[in-house]
Amino acid sequence: SLYAHNQTLLKSVGDWVAPREAIATVGDSGGRSEPALYFEIRRERQPLNPHQWISQKLASEN
């Protein structure tokens, strides 16, 4: 996964992340005029649409 426009990174590459654990704080880096979050999932270096992945994950938690 890839995240951008962060104010503070709370994890490093390779760190274990528990469910619902914060990994960064949202910021306005990268020329943004207001706080934003960029999120991307990749598989074999190719970007994927995260909608289906997130929908399945949320459905399994409820």
How are the SSEs placed, and which strands pair?
Blueprint lengths: L1 E3 L1 E4 L14 E3 L11 E6 L2 E3 L1 H12 L1
Describe the fold and architecture.
The chain is α+β, with helices and mostly antiparallel strands and 62 residues long. It has a single domain, classed as Glucose Permease (Domain IIA) (Distorted Sandwich), CATH 2.70.70. Helix content is 19%, strand content 31%. It has a 3-stranded antiparallel sheet with strand order 1-4-5, with no helix packed on it. The longest helix is centred in the C-terminal third of the chain and has 12 residues, at 50-61. The model has no long low-confidence stretch (mean pLDDT 82).
Largest sheet composition: 3 strands, antiparallel
Spatial order of the strands forming the largest sheet: 1-4-5
SS elements, strand count: 5
Shape: globular
List unreliable stretches of 5+ residues: none
What is the CATH top level name? Mainly Beta
What structural class is derived from the secondary structure elements?
alpha+beta
The CATH homologous superfamily corresponds to Glucose Permease (Domain IIA)
Q: How many H/I helical runs?
A: 1
Q: In what range is the share of β-strand residues?
A: 25-35%
Task: Average the pLDDT over all residues and give the rounded result.
Answer: 82
Radius of gyration: 13 Å
Secondary-structure element string: EEEEEH
Helix content percent band: 10-25%
Taken together, the total number of domains comes to 1
Name the CATH architecture: Distorted Sandwich
How far apart the termini lie comes to: 23 Å
The fold-level CATH name is Glucose Permease (Domain IIA)
